[in-house]
């Protein structure tokens, strides 16, 4: 089975109507979207999502921002997607991210960095389980291409 990761279009990107452009970047890279929903995260869910940062000074502000308005939560799959999707997103602080990356192309701020992506197979498994049941993740059957040939 291809590797899976959790990608979130965060409130700043949703407010700026960048969801379509961000999804396109993942599609063009060759990844497959296998689950998606729009929701507003509760502060409890935000705290679980960012639990690894709970002792950091920026934790409270991070969770407040994350739960402030709608986000789009997605599971994407593809070869080596965890590492490659983080390259596609760019450096954590958008002001440092290289042009050509999502953060580098669409944000000039530090903390409003538009997207979240899991950073390891363990965090991907944990983060996917926070948002999706296994039966909500589609079997993306690439051989099912009748629509191309009918
Ligand atoms: P990433 O989102 O690249 O995985 P991270 O997991 O280290 O980065 O941090 C989670 C988020 O917290 C990040 O997207 C932006 C914010 N953040 C990280 N370090 C910060 C800092 N020193 N000051 C303020 N916000 C920070
Ligand atoms: Mg992280």
Report on the structure:
- There is one protein chain.
- The chain is an alpha+beta fold and 150 residues long.
- It has one domain (3-149): Alpha-Beta Plaits (2-Layer Sandwich).
- Helices cover 40% and strands 17% of the residues.
- It contains 8 helices and 4 strands; from the N terminus they run βααβααβααβαα.
- A 4-stranded antiparallel beta sheet has the order 2-3-1-4.
- The longest helix has 11 residues, at 19-29.
- The chain is globular.
- The model has no long low-confidence stretch (mean pLDDT 95).
- The structure holds 2'-deoxyadenosine-5'-diphosphate (DAT) and magnesium ion.
- 2'-deoxyadenosine-5'-diphosphate is lined by residues 53, 58, 62, 92, 111, 113, 116, 119.
Features:
40% helix; binds magnesium ion; 150 residues; 4 strands
Blueprint (SSEs and pairs):
Layout: E1 3-9, H1 11-15, H2 19-29, E2 32-39, H3 43-49, H4 59-66, E3 71-78, H5 81-89, H6 102-106, E4 115-117, H7 121-131, H8 146-149
Antiparallel strand pairs: 1-3, 1-4, 2-3
Bound molecules: 2'-deoxyadenosine-5'-diphosphate and magnesium ion.
2'-deoxyadenosine-5'-diphosphate is lined by residues 53, 58, 62, 92, 111, 113, 116, 119.
Shape, principal axes of CA atoms? globular
N- to C-terminal distance: 28 Å
Helix content: 40-55%
Strand order of the largest sheet: 2-3-1-4
Q: What is the class in the CATH system?
A: Alpha Beta
- Integer average pLDDT: 95
Give the distinct bound molecules.
2'-deoxyadenosine-5'-diphosphate, magnesium ion
> H/E element string?
EHHEHHEHHEHH
């Amino acid at each position: 089975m291809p590797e899976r990761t959790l990608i979130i279009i965060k409130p700043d990107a949703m407010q700026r109507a960048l969801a379509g452009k961000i999804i396109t970047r993942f599609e063009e890279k060759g990844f497959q979207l296998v689950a998606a929903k729009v929701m507003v995260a509760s502060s409890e869910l935000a705290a679980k999502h960012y639990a690894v940062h709970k002792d950091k000074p920026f934790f409270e502000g991070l969770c407040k921002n994350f739960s402030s308005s709608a986000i789009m939560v997605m599971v994407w799959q593809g070869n080596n997607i965890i590492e490659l999707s983080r390259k596609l997103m760019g450096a954590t602080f958008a002001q440092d991210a290289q042009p050509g990356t999502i953060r580098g192309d669409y944000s000039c701020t530090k903390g409003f960095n538009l997207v979240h992506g899991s950073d390891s197979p363990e965090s991907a498994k944990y983060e996917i389980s926070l948002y999706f049941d296994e039966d909500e993740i589609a079997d993306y059957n690439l051989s099912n291409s009748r629509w191309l040939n009918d």
